[in-house]
Amino acid sequence: MPKIIENLPEKLLAETRRQVSESGYGAVTVRGVAAACGVGVGTVYNYFPSKDVLIASFMLEDWNDALDAMRVAFSDADARAVLSAEYDGLTAFLRRHERLFSDPEAIRTFSQMSHKRHDQLRAQLAEPLRKTLAGRAEADFLADFLTEALLAWTMAGTDKTTLFSVLDRLL
Questions:
Q1: pLDDT tens digit string along 123-158?
Q2: Cβ atoms < 10 Å from Cβ of 53
Q3: Which end of the chain has fewer CB atoms < 10 Å from its terminal CB, N or C?
Q4: Which domains does the chain have, with CATH numbers?
């Protein structure tokens, strides 16, 4: 009879996160995650088809948590408050995954995926700005422009005061 492990997918993700955090992307293997969780490699593959899906899955969980935290700040907020919440959420997400975002092998592996998801990410971040800028003729352009600036400057480590100075000039 197969052994039943409660919440196995969550345990696999937690172990993958731990290994990435401690050892980096290149050191993580499905075999190592399986061994640490006391299951066979095939069992891991029943839930996750690859190491990259394991990593992308815990990052997606973290991104959804970051979005939820940002959304709390979005209610009845102006554009400055929305940008500030998004900047803080993105910065926290980047810090949490700094090891991955600075690992050349991980960057190569995930770069194609990130290009495919860029529009989705921009849409998630631009939507609250569109709401705060509603009624302005250029609301869609401003929301997209500010979101692109937010993404680029956050990735570059630019302080949010720079983003606010651009916002102040545009509004």
A1: 999 999 888 888 888 889 999 999 999 999 888 888
A2: 14
A3: N
A4: 8-51 (1.10.10.60), 55-170 (1.10.357)
